[in-house]
Amino acid sequence: MNKLILAAAALPPPMHGQAYITVKLIEALTKESSTLHVCDLSPESLIKSLGYHVIKCRKVIKTSIYIIFYSMLYRHKTFYTIVESGYGIYYNYYLCSLARLFHYDIYLHHHTSKHAKVFSKTFDWLTKITPNAHHIVLADGMREDLKSKYSNISSIAVSSNACHVKVPNIKPIIIDEKINLGMLSNLTEEKGAIRALDLAIELKKSGLEITLTLAGPIIEPKVEKSIIDAKTTLGEDLIILGPVHGAAKEDFYKKTDVFLFPSTYPNEAQPVVIYEALSYGCAIITSCAGYITDMLKTESAHVYQYKNTILESKDFVYSCIKKSKDNSPFIKKHKLSALEFNSLIKDICS
Questions:
Q1: pLDDT in tens for each of the 350 residues of the chain?
Q2: ∠234-239-242 over CA atoms, to 5°?
Q3: Which of 72, 190, 196, 204 is the most exposed place for a label (fewest CB within 10 A)?
Q4: Alpha carbons 333 and 317: distance in angstroms, whole number
Q5: CB burial class (10 A; 0-12, 13-18, 19+) of residue 53?
Q6: Three-state DSSP class for 18?
């Protein structure tokens, strides 16, 4: 009988970087395995409330039933899931304990820097529950950090998010005197929406011709208020798109000269939107949160990482004028990442 793969992870909606990567991984597993069962653990909302956890608990219980059921049908079986941050790790305890009890090979995919950057007692307990688990991380630095902090981890594979970003067929173009700034994310203070507005206002006051386009859902009232206030200075040069997908997202990147991602989110790992912006040849302004530095250090693209405040990047924006939008630096990264990912899929399915 074939090997069963039971994948338990949050699928869209809502759509965010982790959900997008999970969809791509599920698609790849579907092509390689004829016995794949997917359990969707999505709470169906980004807002954590009582309803959020009720939906999540119901789906976790349903998944646990499948773990037990399939253990009676298959001798060779694999359980794949995402390592949760915050209280979500208690769902990991429950599902991984069951998977170990019923002799599944366990694969744990890390999409957060929380447990790698700083030692976590709660995650250390998970490594003790799953001493033979295979861990999947996004960068070499993430692998080294996990190895140095957790003695129970023995198997770590690196699979960058870069390979999941489609490389568009674009021609290098020269950025003109009017700079188009763009940000695509869940628009929260932590993700940097207010800092992006501050930079645009400062550049406008300094006399530079700019537009700022914000794409993605507005999650917090304080961000909505900051947008209203910024309209006073930016006027029609502030464009709010809301969530974008497909052709609308492609159009956003094509029109963006400098992509902003000034995140202070403490669990930032490897934001897919940065790779997407690089694939369109955009210049990048970002923070040093999580493993963003690792994902950019091999790139020769036009990148600026500020250390204290985003206003440090003002001169960088001026330097982008007359520069070429060119995605060739990203293409090499994409090819290397694809090799890593293909190796990972074969390992899970073997």
A1: 579 999 999 999 888 889 999 999 999 999 999 899 999 999 988 777 888 889 999 999 999 999 999 999 999 999 999 999 888 999 999 999 999 999 999 999 999 999 999 999 999 999 999 999 999 999 999 999 999 999 999 999 999 999 999 999 887 788 888 999 999 999 999 999 999 999 999 999 999 999 999 999 999 999 999 999 999 999 999 999 999 999 999 999 999 999 999 999 989 999 999 999 999 999 999 999 999 988 887 555 688 999 889 999 999 999 998 888 888 888 888 998 999 999 999 999 98
A2: 140
A3: 72
A4: 25
A5: middle
A6: helix
The CA distance from 318 to 315, in Å, is 5
* Helix or strand holding residue 24 (H, E): helix 17-32
Q: How far is the CA of 71 from the CAs of 26, 62, 100, 161, 175, in angstroms?
A: 21, 15, 11, 31, 58
Residue 264 three-state SS: coil
Token pair of 322, please?
């007359």
Domains belonging to the chain, first-starting first, are: 4-158 (3.40.50.2000), 173-329 (3.40.50.2000)
Q: What is the pTM of this model?
A: 0.90
Distances (CA, A) of 192 to 135, 199, 261, 302: 30, 11, 6, 20
Considering only CA atoms, which of 273, 220, 202 is closest in space to residue 244?
273
